[in-house]
Amino acid sequence: MNQFNLKHRVFLFFSNISPPDLIIFLPSAHAESDTEVLLNVIKENPIGILITGIQLLLTRFPPMYPCSIRACSLQHRGQRINRPQLRAHIAKQNLQVKAMLETVDGKPPGVLSLDQDVLVIFNGQHDHYVTPKYYTATKPDTGKVVPTWNYSTAQINGKLSLYYNSKTPEAWVFLAKQLHDLSEQCERNIMVFTGGERPQPWKVADAPERYTELMQRNVVGIKIEIGKIEGKFKMSQEMRRGDRDGVIRGGWRGYLCTRSRSEERCMIRRLRS
């Protein structure tokens, strides 16, 4: 297990389970099937957890944007998303990279594709304890309420290509574009360094070329063609209307005050639908 903080999340693995089978428990009230909504979850929360069935390893990525993992950027054709990808990079010394390379006999020079699908999990910002006191209809009526934890998550399954040999033109070009696109995405969308009245964004070209080339040689690129995407928004939607209103009121007093307007609207829309 590499680059994974057990203080944050714990995964239980069984030897006969492969990543595509690690499906979240998905009651209909909590299910989200809108691809655009789920891709927005990834864009707004681009730190992904990559899980492979190879030696049961996982890695917590730097940013991925639909197209990279917190280094995930989203690719699409025209205005409609068509076969979105996740793009990322990871340290060449990562044990998960070694495990992936060992699974392929007669490795092609530069880029290899895994036969088995991988799983990537993105956790949204809707993540908070819910006290039974928020259930203002059921608690005084029957008292049959218990605490819970509300959260949102998106998970994708797909085919992974590993750009592992930076000495080959294909891998070198992929890595250069990946690092450029990721920096651009984070500088402009996270730091809001857009120029004008705001600071200018940092660019890869701002660092010495020999230094960035050295850094580029020490990472491998990852591209995942998304085959399946599903999500879960657990926000107490299954409760009575009075209880849902109580969750909204409690959220405004508590954790919603630290969330963005879009998150607040998302929660309220789901609870009042």
Automatic annotation (TrEMBL):
Pfam families: FMN_bind_2. InterPro entries: Split_barrel_FMN-bd (IPR012349), TR_PAI2-type (IPR007396). This is Putative FMN-binding domain-containing protein. The lineage of its organism: Eukaryota, Fungi, Dikarya, Ascomycota, Pezizomycotina.
